[in-house]
Specification:
Arc Repressor Mutant, subunit A, 2 domains
């Protein structure tokens, strides 16, 4: 006998999931494949001979590309460790949140969900990257220096959502604190050797931040 009961409706994907799962063009897939190959070979070489003893030329050769190709994807060896492909997803998801929603609410909703997806896909790589950031002084310095970029991206989102030409002082303070929470959570997670759930840690960090900031 045919079962005439209706199947349950599928759970709708979140905006973050939709953005992550969006199909890539052939060109984008090739670029992503090259970035992944460079990272994979770099991490292998770092483990075998140390970060400082590994050159860009060696990484490029192992990935079977030229050094000039390496620099089309990463400005420096440090950036290979510290950057990823998720910034556009984060910005798009933040812009899709209600314009009058406080950044800390939007950010907590978007970033905790995004981080859970990243951990599902790339937990081991993320932990390797953060361990390197802890262990290598040049990476720690670059991490501090490059934190201005995500802070500016978040500030741009806040300014655009508010319909302003320039950010207010309160927005600048909020963006700076928000970015610092992201960085410190990632480093703390690596210091704990990844034993805790990094998404839960970030959720807690942003809750703490929200209790002290009204922006």
């Amino acid at each position: 006998m045919t079962d005439t009961r209706s199947a349950p409706a599928p759970t709708p994907a979140s905006p973050v999931e939709e953005l992550i799962e969006a199909p890539l063009s052939l060109r984008e897939r090739k670029k992503l494949k090259t970035r992944q190959a460079l990272r994979r070979e770099a991490f292998r070489l770092f483990a075998e001979q140390g970060y400082e003893n590994t050159t860009v030329d060696q990484i490029a050769a192992a990935a079977e590309v030229s050094p000039s190709t390496f620099f089309r994807y990463f400005a420096t060896k440090e950036d290979l460790v510290l950057t990823d492909e998720y910034d556009p997803v984060m910005i798009s998801a933040l812009m899709a949140r209600p314009a009058d929603e406080p950044l800390l609410v939007s950010g907590r909703t978007v970033l905790v969900g995004l981080l859970r997806r990243i951990v599902e896909r790339d937990r081991d790589e993320l932990l390797v990257r953060m361990r390197l950031a802890l262990a290598v002084p040049a990476l720690r310095a670059r991490m501090t220096e490059s934190s201005a970029q995500p802070k500016q991206m978040i500030l741009d989102v806040m300014t655009e959502r508010a319909g302003l030409d320039a950010p207010t002082l309160e927005m600048r303070i909020t963006a700076a604190a928000f970015t610092a929470a992201l960085v410190e959570t990632a480093l703390y997670w690596a210091e704990q050797d990844g034993r805790e759930d990094i998404a839960d840690l970030l959720d807690h960090a942003l809750e703490v931040l929200g209790n002290g900031l009204a922006a």
